[in-house]
């Protein structure tokens, strides 16, 4: 063998060609070889070459050799301690020498020796086996092999205006697992921009990131400047994998690579990423501010070649993923204009501008500078003093498998400081109480004695409004009017509190974006928080009127209008609107009114939120989210949540609810059946009219008597002085004034003779006191010297609703009632059954709208307590109203929606069976009654549970009739012609039997259900592993299939992995017991599959939609292929190794796991079937054999044409060897002839 090798080597030498000696093809190029010349001195910002960390191994570069003599300077070769080769280089190709290299020191030419091996690989290439230099800042010296010894002087050229610019490029096409599809990934490319004014020079560019040297590049002329760039892939090799760094380049010139370099000039730092232009912002409390970001580098999309239909889309977002602060205090939020909401579903982020391959190829603009802006706002808790004033808003780029260097990039933080320069909103309230006494935010008091609906409060910038309805309230007293309804809009929510006799209603009228937060505080008080954080407190008083108070927040300052005034800190201009003074005092009986100002805010019916009229119905129906100009988004707090998890609404406040308060949410309303939801406005108004008529008939009038002014003074002073909470508030809370409230109390009692109004006057004062305790941080931090409690805590502890109506004791802010009294203020007689109005509300619960989950009962005197109970007496009813069996009684806990509405939850009822074997239950009738104490129930309300699709109430109350064209089977309406589920022989035939299934004898019986209802997948015949999607006009995509049973006689899913991805008509094939394989590598997803054997040739599969786009389930024909000409088919029967059933059970079902794998085969399906319909198919009813026999064809050649595959392989190898030997002999002969 050795002789043959020598012969071959001799032949190549004789012909002038050289073989590469062994080992010469595994070397590494010498790093930074152009910086290792003996005359090269690093510039000031350039690091020295350092081989202390050099990996041991073979190094070389064609045309370069290690210096063979000591440099004259220790600063040569781009390092501090140069290393030269002290031995002699090998002469012959293939020779290797071993010698030493010397480290030049400050006092010696060889302060340290290093063993070096040198192998000669060609006339111009020697490779060196180098080891670490073992000395810091020492490096091997290399220079051009053809250097004649002359040193080229440094050129005069000095670069000016050196800058770094970013560009984008795409990698060469990378094969994917999809045949014919290649992928090009984007890369950011940094260019060092300078002006080469002199030809014939070599330009060197050094790159730095974060002050750290990265790489040095050399270009021998201007045409090769592309070689000077810094690419994203080179950064990855240095461990820089994500944006947010500063890039610099320096430029210098040389006359040749061994020459002395000229002076280096560096660029300024270029920030690669997204600059935060506003790293620190000051946000005034109650206002907004803008933050600005600028991107400096392109964001590229992956590019696919070879497939139509691929879109180079790569959505990524700059998102807010963390805001410091707590949910119960001030916070910073993102504010989004409605126009932006339509462009992006990500409320807490903005989409980054994409750069696409095709756009760049078609001359797209290469300007990557893109500015992004957000408006940030403040979520305010309404406390007088901010608990937190400094926030940190953190930003990042969303995760995604697109442009790698962008993925998860975290931007610099934005520091937000909140300043509070507001003042006029503190300790302010607007209120209307009793008959009514009005007070603006800025403290102006006036009387209002008019009926109608008015704008009480309206925000000038936000979709927030509070409407107030007033009506006459005291019989026999001229001009005495009271507030009876408050209708509140926030965003797209409307909440109604109406005690007006003509339309009593307390609930959401419209549910939208959840901007309103509603809390029920006891039986008579509701607190509604507006989107600004302003709090509306509504108290239900005795009779038909309400008291209302609004406490503002900083966002209301100078931004409101209406009967509450403008909240600008000045009371002298409360009645001046648009420069016109409407403050003229008008006499209205014994009252002094401001009628001109009041009339200014009177609303016509088209603008009413409530009650519902023809004129204002469109206003409510058309209320949508896209009518709102400002959306506030509370972004994820300290979680790895995606931006889509943000909560967005018109709400710009934070509220931590008290445990005493029960929240009313829109979700509760949305869960109600359609017949109960207030969206059906006409039906709601009809129900309200019925309720109002009933309440008017049963209304108990307040005790009216003649009270002198002196008697009124005595009653009012006693009421105030006996209230411990008021006395404590007056002594400890600044700004609590009682003089005007006592005077109003005296006036009201003297004029009307109604002593109950003394309680309303006291409530107006105690409300202000409690609000101060909740919001005034001074009161919260000032402790009482006796017990160590703060003033605020004491106020909350001693203040109870209505002083417990003198029927209980106030303990820790809660009334503990005595005797037979109950309720939050001990004003209800619990031993008195609440009144149920049987003629109000629905008499029918229609299951055609959905399950009868709850029934609402209307009346009076419902107490919100844990003892509130619904009693349901259930009676089953047959045809013609016949009662079936005895009644059953069940009790469930009731939920008080308001004092005149209770919800009874019907889902807790136990399902009754027919009590008689032959009894036929047509429907059920409920008799419902309510008890406040769980035992004393009032009168009953009857409700029938029916299905209006086929049952029709008749004139006789307890009788239902059947609609034509329906059956009523198993308490369900069935349309004529519909079949029993899973059984085709049972059908609804009203002409034969309206109450039982009719059996069709002429329909043959079928096997188990899956074998009956299965369907064909679309394009069933194009799902073979040999069917490449590239050959189809439309790629199959099983993401959108309907979950269910699928199959086809003679077709099964393959049991083994597919050899390529572009199979089964999709981009990713799905097969049993495998995985979904991605384009490049790896498994993507598993899909569980159920299999049922229906016959020897039919298995059906329970398939679910795939989670991978353009993946398709594979089905192979199990029928033997027809042999082609000149071949003979020898069928070979094999049994599947997968257990598809129990051999003792013909209807067996097993579960498998299938996976989509983009791995295709290359065989074409041989079948004569052309059925590609996606319809249920009736299969053959043969006895089922669970052993699946798959006929496959093993083709063999005719005996005349040769042996089988194994023998042919051996012969092929022998022939190939002979050919090689003959060729070698011919080559030798030719070479000798040439010689």
Description:
The chain has 1235 residues and is of the alpha+beta class. Helices cover 13% and strands 33% of the residues. It is built from 16 helices and 78 strands. The strands form 20 sheets. It has an 8-stranded antiparallel sheet with strand order 32-31-30-41-40-39-38-49, covered by helices on one side. β5 and β6 (112-120) form a beta hairpin. It starts with a helix and ends with a helix. Residues 1-16 form the signal peptide.
Globally, the shape reads: flat
Helix content percent band: 10-25%
According to DSSP, the number of beta strands is: 78
**Unreliable runs:** 1-18, 325-330, 337-346, 638-645, 671-682, 694-702, 1121-1148, 1153-1212
Structure class:
alpha+beta
Query: Rg to the nearest angstrom?
Result: 44 Å
Number of helices: 16
Q: Per DSSP, what share of the residues sits in E-state strands of 2 or more residues? A: 25-35%
- Which whole number gives the mean pLDDT? 77
Biggest sheet, spatial arrangement of strands: 32-31-30-41-40-39-38-49
Let me know the largest β-sheet. Answer: 8 strands, antiparallel
Domain VWFD: 428-611
Biased composition (Basic and acidic residues): 1123-1133
Protein name: VWFD domain-containing protein
Transmembrane segments: 1210-1233
In short:
The chain is 13% helix and 33% strand.
Core attributes:
1235 residues; alpha+beta; eight-stranded antiparallel sheet; eight-stranded mixed sheet; 16 helices; flat; Helical_Vwde
């Amino acid at each position: 063998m050795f002789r043959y090798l020598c012969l071959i080597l001799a032949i190549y030498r004789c012909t002038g060609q050289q073989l590469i000696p062994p080992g010469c093809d595994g070397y590494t190029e010498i790093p930074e070889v152009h910086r290792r010349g003996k005359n090269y001195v690093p510039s000031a910002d350039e690091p020295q070459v350092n081989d202390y960390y050099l990996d041991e191994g073979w190094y070389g570069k064609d045309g370069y050799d290690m210096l063979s003599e000591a440099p004259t300077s220790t600063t040569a070769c781009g390092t501090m301690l140069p290393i030269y080769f002290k031995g002699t280089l090998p002469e012959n190709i293939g020779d290797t020498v071993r010698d030493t290299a010397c480290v030049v020191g400050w006092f010696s030419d060889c302060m340290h020796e290093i063993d070096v091996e040198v192998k000669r690989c060609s006339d111009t290439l020697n490779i060196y086996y180098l080891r670490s230099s073992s000395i810091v800042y020492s490096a091997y010296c290399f220079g051009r092999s053809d250097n004649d010894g002359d040193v080229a002087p440094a050129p005069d050229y000095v670069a000016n205006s050196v800058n770094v610019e970013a560009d984008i490029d795409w990698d060469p096409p990378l094969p994917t697992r999809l045949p014919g599809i290649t992928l090009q990934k984007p890369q950011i490319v940094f260019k060092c921009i300078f002006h080469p004014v002199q030809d014939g020079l070599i330009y060197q560019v050094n790159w730095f990131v974060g002050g750290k040297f990265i790489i040095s590049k050399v270009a021998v002329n201007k045409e090769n400047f592309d070689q000077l760039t810094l690419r994203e892939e080179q950064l990855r090799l240095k461990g820089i994998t994500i944006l947010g760094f500063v890039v610099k380049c320096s430029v210098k010139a040389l006359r040749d690579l061994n020459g002395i370099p000229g002076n280096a000039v560096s660029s300024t730092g270029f920030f690669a990423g997204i600059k935060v232009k506003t790293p620190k912002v000051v946000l005034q409390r109650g206002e907004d501010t803008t933050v600005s970001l600028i991107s400096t580098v392109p964001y590229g999309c992956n590019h696919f070649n070879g497939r139509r239909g691929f879109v180079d889309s790569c959505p990524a977002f700059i998102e807010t993923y963390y805001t410091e602060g707590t949910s119960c205090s001030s916070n910073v939020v993102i504010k989004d204009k409605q126009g932006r909401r339509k462009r992006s579903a990500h409320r807490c982020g903005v989409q980054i501008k994409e750069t696409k391959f095709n756009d760049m190829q078609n001359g797209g603009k290469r300007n990557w500078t893109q500015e992004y802006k957000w408006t940030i706002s403040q979520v305010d808790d309404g406390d007088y003093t901010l608990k937190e004033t400094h926030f940190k808003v953190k930003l990042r780029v969303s995760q995604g498998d697109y442009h790698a260097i962008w993925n998860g990039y975290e931007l610099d933080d934005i520091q937000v400081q909140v300043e509070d320069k507001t003042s006029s909103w503190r300790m302010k309230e607007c209120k209307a109480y009793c008959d009514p006494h009005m007070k603006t935010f800025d403290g102006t008091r006036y009387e209002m004695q008019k009926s109608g609906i008015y704008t009480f409060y309206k925000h000038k910038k936000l979709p927030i409004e509070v409407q107030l309805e007033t009506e006459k309230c005291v019989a026999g007293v001229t001009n005495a009017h009271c507030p009876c309804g408050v209708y509140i809009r926030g965003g797209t929510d409307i909440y109604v509190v109406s005690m007006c006799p003509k339309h009593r209603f307390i609930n959401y009228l419209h549910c939208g974006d959840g901007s309103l937060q509603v809390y029920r505080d006891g039986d008579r008080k509701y607190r509604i928080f507006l989107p600004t954080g302003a709090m509306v407190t509504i108290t239900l008083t005795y009779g038909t009127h309400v008291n209302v108070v609004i406490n503002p927040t900083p966002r209301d300052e100078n931004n409101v209008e209406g009967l509450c005034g403008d909240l600008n800190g000045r009371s002298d201009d409360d009645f001046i609107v648009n420069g016109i003074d409407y403050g003229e005092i008008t006499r209205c009986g014994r009252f002094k009114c401001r009628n001109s100002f009041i009339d200014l805010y009177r609303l016509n019916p088209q603008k009413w939120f409530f009650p519902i009229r023809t004129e204002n119905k469109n206003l409510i129906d058309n209320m949508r989210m896209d009518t709102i100009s400002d959306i506030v988004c509370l972004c994820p707090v300290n979680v790895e949540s995606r931006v889509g998890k943000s909560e967005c609404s018109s709400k710009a406040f934070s509220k931590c609810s008290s445990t005493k308060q029960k929240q009313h949410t829109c979700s509760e309303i949305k869960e109600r059946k359609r017949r109960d939801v207030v969206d059906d406005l006409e039906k709601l108004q009809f129900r309200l009219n019925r309720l109002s008529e009933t309440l008017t008939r049963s209304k108990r009038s307040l005790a009216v008597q003649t009270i002198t002014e002196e008697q009124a003074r005595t009653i009012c002073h006693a009421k105030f002085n006996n209230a411990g909470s008021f006395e404590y508030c007056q002594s400890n809370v600044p700004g609590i004034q009682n003089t005007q409230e006592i005077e109003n109390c005296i006036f009201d009692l003297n004029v009307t003779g109604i002593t109950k109004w003394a309680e309303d006057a006291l409530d107006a004062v105690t409300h202000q006191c409690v609000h101060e305790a909740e919001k005034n941080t001074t009161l919260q931090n000032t402790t009482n010297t006796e017990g160590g409690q703060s003033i605020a805590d004491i106020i909350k502890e001693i203040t109870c609703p209505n002083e417990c109506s003198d029927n209980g004791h106030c303990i820790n802010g809660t009334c503990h009632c005595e005797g037979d009294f109950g309720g939050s203020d001990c004003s209800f007689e619990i031993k008195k059954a609440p009144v149920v109005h049987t003629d109000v509300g629905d008499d029918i619960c229609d299951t055609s709208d959905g399950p009868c989950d709850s029934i609402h009962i209307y009346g009076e005197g419902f107490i919100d307590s844990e003892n509130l109970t619904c009693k349901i007496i259930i009676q089953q009813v047959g045809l013609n109203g016949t009662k079936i069996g005895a009644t059953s009684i069940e009790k469930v806990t009731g939920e008080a929606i308001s004092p005149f509405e209770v919800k009874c939850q019907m889902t807790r009822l136990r399902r009754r069976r027919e009590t008689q074997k032959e009894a036929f239950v047509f429907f059920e009738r409920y008799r419902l009654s309510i008890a406040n104490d769980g035992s004393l129930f009032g009168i009953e309300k009857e409700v029938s549970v029916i299905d209006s699709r086929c049952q029709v109430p008749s004139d006789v109350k307890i009788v239902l009739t059947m609609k034509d064209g329906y059956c009523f089977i198993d308490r369900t309406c069935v349309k004529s012609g519909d079949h029993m589920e899973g059984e085709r022989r049972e059908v609804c035939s009203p002409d034969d039997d309206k109450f039982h299934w009719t059996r069709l004898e002429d329909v043959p019986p079928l096997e188990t259900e899956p074998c009956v209802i299965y369907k064909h997948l679309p394009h069933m015949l194009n799902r073979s592993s040999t069917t490449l999607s590239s050959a189809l006009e439309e790629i199959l995509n099983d993401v959108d299939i309907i979950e269910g049973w699928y199959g086809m006689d003679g077709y099964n899913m393959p049991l083994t992995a597919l050899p390529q991805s572009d199979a089964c008509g999709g981009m990713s094939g799905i097969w049993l017991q495998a995985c979904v394989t991605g384009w490049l590598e790896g498994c993507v997803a598993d899909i569980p599959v159920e299999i049922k054997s229906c016959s020897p040739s039919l298995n059906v599969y329970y398939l679910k939609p795939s989670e991978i786009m353009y993946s398709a389930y594979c089905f192979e024909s199990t029928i033997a292929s027809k042999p082609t000409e000149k071949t003979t088919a020898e069928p070979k029967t094999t049994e599947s190794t997968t257990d598809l059933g129990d051999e003792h059970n013909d209807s067996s079902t097993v579960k498998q796991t299938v996976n989509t794998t983009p791995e295709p085969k290359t065989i074409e399906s041989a079948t004569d079937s052309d059925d590609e319909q996606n319809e249920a198919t009736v299969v053959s009813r043969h006895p089922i054999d669970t052993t699946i026999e798959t006929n496959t064809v093993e083709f063999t050649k005719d005996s005349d044409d040769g042996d089988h595959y194994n023998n042919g392989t051996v012969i092929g190898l022998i022939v190939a060897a002979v050919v090689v030997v003959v060729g070698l002999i011919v080559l030798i002969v030719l070479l000798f002839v040439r010689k």
